[in-house]
């Protein structure tokens, strides 16, 4: 049996936390041969609720769950963390854009970035789920000067999975027939789900759908799916968000499949003309615990305009939060 790794989860008593922790403990994220020690962070008023979650985790008698640390202190939660899933933040309500949460949520991520900087493993893999995820990840990164900036990522995998499911339905295929989906940019309504490089059963997706459906239905449906779920459920997505977080971390830790890639929000390095300084959704392959941007994809004018629009929004969000960066 492998030695246990430490997985920190913030907002552990929240909706997503409740859908996430049991799957991590069951081995869905890091494999059925990888024991885990869960480090659960909550705000002080939620510690009682967290106690109940810990009781339930224990009651599952998971073979892979080696220990649980439950705390309201980020310095304890991130101590020696190998993985950190930053979920704890307010969800939006109906009629809000995710960036409307920046003021309420942005200030959570500076101190957590600093605590990661001071206490986590030097190769910690950080996934920010709390919205607005890309810019919150940037805030955390900018407060962790001693960690590699590439340790900080944001979740666009839910959008990636939503796009797969929409295309599978349209083409009458199963999502396992679909490869090379891309979500460029921000986890927001400017995100650009790009079908130009996608294959369905080996055929190019753009040859199977018409431009009117692509522009008029597919793109807006994926961009607005979070809002549609809030409207239908009266609360934001939770189980699908948790599942996407598991997928993101599993791909990063265990690698992507041969002949396919996934979408991750990662620090822009200038690839595809995206100015550095933001956390941008890119197609990546992962191997040996590292991600790499897929290079050399042809970008047409339609895609270029949308990729630039979502980059512009991220740079605007950055300008709004620069006061939260460590000096
Ligand atoms: P929730 O309100 O059910 O749970 C959030 C939890 O975070 C609460 O228990 C709260 O006490 C805790 N929390 C708040 N501040 C904290 C802090 N400083 N440290 C630790 N814990 C803290 O919300 P939820 O439905 O679980 O959603 C959490 C976040 O995830 C929201 O911001 C939501 O918008 C976002 N989200 C992102 C995606 C994505 O694709 N990136 C998808 C779904 C939801
Ligand atoms: C989602 O995409 O479901 C989440 O980001 C929640 C939201 O606010 O839409």
TrEMBL record:
GO terms for biological process, alphabetical: malate metabolic process; tricarboxylic acid cycle
Q: Which InterPro entries match?
A: L-lactate/malate_DH (IPR001557), Lactate/malate_DH_C (IPR022383), Lactate/malate_DH_N (IPR001236), Lactate_DH/Glyco_Ohase_4_C (IPR015955), Malate_DH_type2 (IPR010945), NAD(P)-bd_dom_sf (IPR036291)
A Pfam cross-reference name: Ldh_1_C
What keywords appear on the UniProt entry? Answer: NAD, Oxidoreductase, Tricarboxylic acid cycle
* Domain named Lactate/malate dehydrogenase N-terminal: residues: 5-148
Q: Which residues bind substrate?
A: 92, 98, 131, 162
Q: Which reaction does it catalyse?
A: (S)-malate + NAD(+) = oxaloacetate + NADH + H(+)
Gene3D superfamilies registered for this protein in UniProt: Lactate dehydrogenase/glycoside hydrolase, family 4, C-terminal, NAD(P)-binding Rossmann-like Domain
The molecular function GO annotations come to: L-malate dehydrogenase (NAD+) activity
Output the CDD domains linked to this UniProt entry: MDH_chloroplast-like
Kindly report, in one word, the top-level EC class recorded for this enzyme: oxidoreductase
- Chain sites annotated for binding NAD(+): 11-17, 105, 112, 129-131
Enzyme Commission number: 1.1.1.37
Q: Which positions are catalytic residues? A: 187 (proton acceptor)
Taking every annotated instance into account, which residue ranges of this chain make up the domain Lactate/malate dehydrogenase C-terminal? 157-318
Query: In which family does this protein belong, per the annotation?
Result: Belongs to the LDH/MDH superfamily. MDH type 2 family.
PANTHER family of this UniProt entry? Answer: MALATE DEHYDROGENASE (PTHR23382)
Report the function annotation for this chain: Catalyzes the reversible oxidation of malate to oxaloacetate.
Query: What is the official name of this protein in its record?
Result: Malate dehydrogenase
Gene this chain is encoded by:
mdh
